[in-house]
Amino acid sequence: MSPTYFIDALQNELSQLQYGQHPPELYDPIRYIMSLGGKRLRPLLTLMATYLFTDDWQKAIRPALGIEVFHNFTLLHDDIMDKAPLRRGEPTVHEKWNDNIAILSGDVMLVNAYKLLLHVEADKLKSVLARFSETAAEVCEGQQMDMNFETRWDVTEEEYVEMIRLKTSVLVGYALELGGLIAGADDDTNRHLYEGGMNIGIGFQLKDDLLDVYGDPAKFGKQVGGDIIANKKTFLLIEALEQTTGSLKNELIEWLQKSEFDRDEKVRAVTAIYDKVGIRQLTESRINDYFARGFANFDAIDADPNRKNVLSQFARQLVERES
Amino acid sequence: MSPTYFIDALQNELSQLQYGQHPPELYDPIRYIMSLGGKRLRPLLTLMATYLFTDDWQKAIRPALGIEVFHNFTLLHDDIMDKAPLRRGEPTVHEKWNDNIAILSGDVMLVNAYKLLLHVEADKLKSVLARFSETAAEVCEGQQMDMNFETRWDVTEEEYVEMIRLKTSVLVGYALELGGLIAGADDDTNRHLYEGGMNIGIGFQLKDDLLDVYGDPAKFGKQVGGDIIANKKTFLLIEALEQTTGSLKNELIEWLQKSEFDRDEKVRAVTAIYDKVGIRQLTESRINDYFARGFANFDAIDADPNRKNVLSQFARQLVERES
């Protein structure tokens, strides 16, 4: 069973999902944001994890889409909070409609996510929903931490990693754990699935920060240096603020405080500061640590080697991405 | 078992509820809004309904509080949408903190509501959560309809009643139904509980509209005529717009369009128009219809007469309130 096969099954079910009808102002935004696409990474991981332990992976399709709907709910509400104009190149819901509609259609998406998660066998329901609810609360905690960090310049590496763990990685972990829960895997296995997904997720997020500065412009989809231009508090910047001292630190802070600057010059100058204190190597080392932990989690899982290979290969692609 | 006894049990459990700790910006607003009080009407109804069929009503306390947390979540998000400065005489969450914190702490409240509802027996979980999720989506639909009505002057009685049914009454119905579900009552009984609560809820909401105009100033807590001054689209105004014709209708519309006016004069004039087309009698007749339907639902329930009496007496108080 290849990832493409799982993805097709997800897209087929997604195209038939009914979110609700009346009033249209409440449900059109849900259909809209769900139609903007995305890699459907989380539900795909759920199906792969289910397939590790059972041929009947199709029973995981609807609960898996519950995670996808939840993920899109967080994007919808985050976009309001960030006042983001665009999502995947299209107007965000609060721009296309308004803030109130975006708040309320997001609320009903969260309810819809639970509705989809109800489609698991009765004896799995309590653990599936208890772990989902914990995870969902953690995602909100991560988003609040991220907002809190906007006005702080003393964020530590530990705090930053905890923020991305909560905001993005626990849901990747839960996506895999959900597959284990649905397939009836044992607690140890489910813990390895969760931690494996979480560790790969943290590495993935740190790699996002790294590629924005050190990605190959020919392969990287976006403009290299965008985070530097925007003073985005990435792992690299937080480390540079921790690692630099004296005049080098002052130079970094000056660049952060400049309101007018040549973009290329700022990117070159800040990158040069990063280079001087070895930020690239430090970040790569952390990324490799998290990836290694994640693969160790997967290795510890007792399942059909061919099926494990599908998951590991897919995780390997995520890890080795250049864009 | 008197209502006071149930309320004490609810307050005791409420005072011990843990919503979460970190970051405080996420969880302080939840503790704040939950501490503002309120009659705890919905969870009280759940306990009364549970007690109709079992002595072990205490097992319903936590799920009942899930409904209370959900209700307060809707108040929190509605207050953002309505830009309301005050809730129960205290600053609203978005005023005391900000809109983003209000959105996000509301989101985690909805998750917390589900967490509390997970505390039902395993064999009840699916029906409890499926019906809750349906109800929660309907509450959002009602709120969206209410917002849509703000810019419309052609709302019909049918649309208005459907809006209040969804926005407020289905949750009252579900509060009672939840008690039946937890106690293991049969489907017919649960339907009567739900519809009984819903019908009383609609009557209650219409009485709210009525008292704002025709309440006894000595007994009514707020200023009589507040809805008229604010052009609030109540059942009375919608009916008056439907029932008046010619010069009387023009007079009504003129009052609605005036941006400067003497408040008492407007209240007197609009009330006089209501009186001319019998709005008070019409509204009272509708209220009595819904109350009668609700009590007929309760009558159809097969349970210990003394225990049914506690519920009916309490509903009677709600119905006969003067403020």
TrEMBL record, chains A, B:
GO biological process, one term: isoprenoid biosynthetic process
Keyword Lyase: no
Pfam annotation, one family: polyprenyl_synt
Superkingdom field: Bacteria
Keyword set includes Magnesium: yes
GO molecular function, one term: metal ion binding
InterPro entries: Isoprenoid_synthase_dom_sf (IPR008949), Polyprenyl_synt (IPR000092), Polyprenyl_synt_CS (IPR033749)
Xref: SUPFAM superfamilies: Terpenoid synthases (SSF48576)
Keywords attached to this entry: Magnesium, Metal-binding, Transferase
Needed cofactors: Mg(2+)
UniProt record similarity statement: Belongs to the FPP/GGPP synthase family.
Protein name: Polyprenyl synthetase family protein
Source organism per UniProt: Spirosoma profusum
